[in-house]
Write a structure and sequence with these properties.
Length: 370
């Protein structure tokens, strides 16, 4: 379901660059000296107040958070799909949205008041449906494309960028509000909101392949754009004027630089070990951001290495942006997606978000029991 998002967030496809082999090198001293809080125990904690879902083979996956204590999970039965709301504390489950065909993606806006649901119908057409917290339809988009990606505006909760992919991976981009749809001309299908009226994107030069590209800022109301940064590998933004660029001095470096910007001014920096893919893809760790406490959670490899042979696990790191401090919370064998709860108390973890990590005590609970 989140395949497109994995491509956009976890791996940024570059125009063409092959890196030289990386030698294994352990973390800089500033990382090694950080105190270790806890590791995930070999068995899951018992006595947790979080209640796993009952074993149900029709459950496809957990799609994300609904509110602080509830998740949405997906069931497929025959030719219909149903999203259920499930309370992690009371184990109460109730239908949220049922559709004919298949639900292939669900994206909540910043305050979880609206959800963008992508549906493939029985006629193999793709629709994008915007529903509210009651599961009632607010907008339906049909015949715009064969697949959609949604980028919610965190500064204006009923507005989003809709990228509609056409045959042969051409795409069209629209700015959508609850009253109108306006086409927006962009050179890249991956965009990030910088402010209520501006988005940022990397402008790749097709005729001059490079692992970096200039970062542009675009006004979505009048399409005016300006160059913001010259050479950037990846760009991410968060719902509180904070954003992040990934840069590197050369392809031979062992660490890339993650620079945080507050209101587009440099604020903090951290170093990230590079896992070399030896391809046109640059490895980016899975991450999630708690806007309330301004904590950047991510999975960090223990050292720079070859992506395909690296097998030494990934540390779950909480980086506190305001204080420039970090904390190791756990170590996982695999590199898997993360998503923080609306209040910042829990993390969903796993390819199917099948586990939840309690940030208050380090307990991890498997939600989908085998």
């Amino acid at each position: 379901m989140r395949q497109v998002l994995f491509i956009l967030i976890a791996v940024f496809v570059l125009a063409g660059c092959t890196q030289a082999p990386l030698e294994n090198q352990h973390m800089p001293k500033r990382f090694e000296d950080q105190p270790i809080k806890r590791d995930v125990p070999s068995s899951f904690f018992t006595g947790s107040q979080l209640v796993p879902l009952e074993n149900n083979l029709s459950i496809t996956e957990i799609v994300g958070w609904f509110d602080d204590g509830s998740i949405l999970y997906l069931e497929e039965q025959g030719e219909s799909s149903t999203l259920y709301q499930y309370n992690l504390h009371t184990s109460e489950s109730s239908p949220f949205l049922q559709l004919d065909g298949w639900i292939i993606d669900v994206q909540a806006n910043a305050d979880y008041s609206l959800f963008a649901v992508q549906q493939v119908t029985l006629n193999h057409e793709t629709n994008l449906i915007i529903v509210d917290r009651d599961g009632d339809s607010r907008q339906i988009f049909q015949d715009y494309g064969e697949e959609y990606v949604v980028y919610w505006n965190p500064y204006k909760e009923d507005t989003f960028i809709m990228v509609a992919f056409l045959p042969d991976w051409e795409f069209e981009t629209y700015v959508v509000t609850d009253t109108k749809v306006k086409e927006l001309s962009l050179d890249n299908s991956y965009v990030q909101w910088i402010s209520e009226k501006h988005v940022g994107y990397l402008k790749w030069e097709e005729l001059e392949p490079s692992f970096q590209a200039p970062l542009y800022e675009v006004n979505v109301e009048n399409s005016e754009e300006r160059k913001w940064k010259e050479s950037v590998i990846a760009y991410m933004s968060f719902p509180d004027t904070l954003s992040l660029t990934v840069t590197v001095d050369s392809v031979y470096e062992l660490y890339s630089t993650y620079t945080f910007y507050d209101e587009q001014k440099p604020f903090r920096e951290i170093e990230m070990p590079i896992l070399n893919t030896y391809s046109e893809q640059w490895w980016i760790p899975f991450y999630t951001y708690d806007v309330h406490d301004r904590v950047f959670y991510y999975l960090r490899p223990k050292h720079s290495s070859d992506f395909f042979s690296y097998d030494e696990g990934f540390d779950l790191i909480a980086y506190y942006v305001d204080t420039d401090a970090e904390e190791k919370l756990a170590t996982f064998d695999k590199h898997v997606p993360l998503r923080v709860s609306p209040s910042g108390g829990y993390l969903l973890i796993g390819d199917r978000f099948e586990s939840v990590f309690d940030l208050s005590d380090g307990a991890i609970v498997s939600l989908l029991e085998e």
